[in-house]
Amino acid sequence: xxxxxxxxxxxxxxxxxxxxxxxxxxxxxxxxxxxxxxxxxxxxxxxxxxxxxxxxxxxxxxxxxxxxxxxxxxxxxxxxxxxxxxxxxxxxxxxxxxxxxxxxxxxxxxxxxxxxxxxxxxxxxxxxxxxxxxxxxxxxxxxxxxxxxxxxxxxxxxxxxxxxxxxxxxxxxxxxxxxxxxxxxxxxxxxxxxxxxxxxxxxxxxxxxxxxxxxxxxxxxxxxxxxxxxxxxxxxxxxxxxxxxx
Length: 246
Description:
Layout: E1 7-11, H1 22-32, E2 36-39, H2 52-64, H3 72-78, E3 98-103, H4 105-111, E4 120-126, E5 131-137, E6 143-149, E7 165-170, H5 187-199, E8 209-211, E9 219-223
Parallel strand pairs: 1-2, 1-3, 3-4, 4-7, 7-9
Antiparallel strand pairs: 5-6, 8-9
């Protein structure tokens, strides 16, 4: 009998999966760490942002609600009758843990995963925020921008305890903070304002890593000089450096 493993679910950003294979890199990395690693296909069109929290909640439920027949977690964790045919091929035991990871729109979708299943035990979120900004000219020009509030990303709206969540954003993230123009705030501080709101952690603005002292080291990290899309999986890149503090 195969030894069963915890589950890792990655959800990519807006149409990102159509143009790159980074999700494959992430899944291989997690498989090497002893997880059954999968990614979820979903409606990732940019127009999905128009629905805001309602849209993110709907997408998250379709993937992560383990009581919904056909969801990813139901197929892999709750399909006792093997209706979807995974039981004999996928050596997963969701009771050992379900780690979720997402980028941009996928980060918003995965942040809500714990709201739909108690099986979710940890979350890593890249490029997340509670106030989105879509600009024709990105940072530093930041012109012709439209805004969208995403209050369901606030820490007090997330069921997964903050001690189980970690967020990473670039300090030049045009979508979540760097293109805000709040009086008395510079661009970096605007990014941190959002990270503090969604993580539930507070540290001085001068501090890049705001991790809790518990073994999980939950909290947030500000990647200096990086934009919204900072996950360069090229060997030797900033993102792939094993010595990064995250």
